[in-house]
Amino acid sequence: MKFRGGYKYQTAERFETYVTSAPPGGETIVTSYLTLTGHAKLTIFEGYAWDGVSGPAMDTDDSMVPGLVHDALYQLLREGHLDPSYRAEADRAFYEQCLRAGMNGMRAKYMYWAVDKFAAFAASPENRKEVREVPD
């Protein structure tokens, strides 16, 4: 059996939303865990695992969906499905999702500032989750 560790949450159902922009070139990205269409529609499948918001931020009701969307987009960046230039769009999508979730505007701006300034490492291919294998 193979697995990836390091996640706190897992979706119990399919989740769909629109993000701030489509992938460059308007292509649709399809993986085993999500799709991102050329019309900026993000679909995350049931069972997707993510680790919530990072750093000093706390997982709250108004940060769970933004964290899910941001983690999914950053995973696409880490895995090379999106060009590194898309990172700014992923951060803007996080900010927009914070506002949609009802987060206070000042907190949303602070959270956006934090991911913009400090989260680049998380989008880097060097930080892909290690696949581990255990005997069956």
Describe this structure in words.
By secondary structure, the chain is α+β, with helices and mostly antiparallel strands. It has one domain (9-120). It contains four helices and eight strands. The protein has helices at residues 61-78, 87-100, 105-118, 120-123, and strands at residues 2-4, 9-10, 15-18, 29-30, 34-36, 41-44, 49-50, 131-133. Strands 3-6-5-4 form a four-stranded antiparallel β-sheet, with no helix packed on it. A two-stranded antiparallel sheet has the order 1-8. Helix 1 (61-78) runs antiparallel to helix 2 and helix 2 runs antiparallel to helix 3 (105-118).
Mean pLDDT: 91
Care to count the β-strands?
Answer: 8
Please estimate the helix content.
25-40%
What's the tally of helices? 4
Strand content: 15-25%
- The number of domains is 1
* Whole-angstrom Rg: 15 Å
**How many strands, which pairing sense, and closed or not: the largest β-sheet?**
4 strands, antiparallel
Instruction: Order the strands across the largest sheet as they lie in space.
Output: 3-6-5-4
Model regions low in confidence, pLDDT < 50 over at least 5 residues: none
Element string (H = helix, E = strand): EEEEEEEHHHHE
N-end to C-end Cα span: 6 Å
User: Outline, from the CA principal axes?
Assistant: globular
Helix- and strand-based class?
alpha+beta
Q: What order do the helices and strands come in, and which of them pair?
A:
Elements: E1 2-4, E2 9-10, E3 15-18, E4 29-30, E5 34-36, E6 41-44, E7 49-50, H1 61-78, H2 87-100, H3 105-118, H4 120-123, E8 131-133
Antiparallel strand pairs: 1-8, 2-7, 3-6, 4-5, 5-6
Helix pairs in contact: 1-2, 2-3
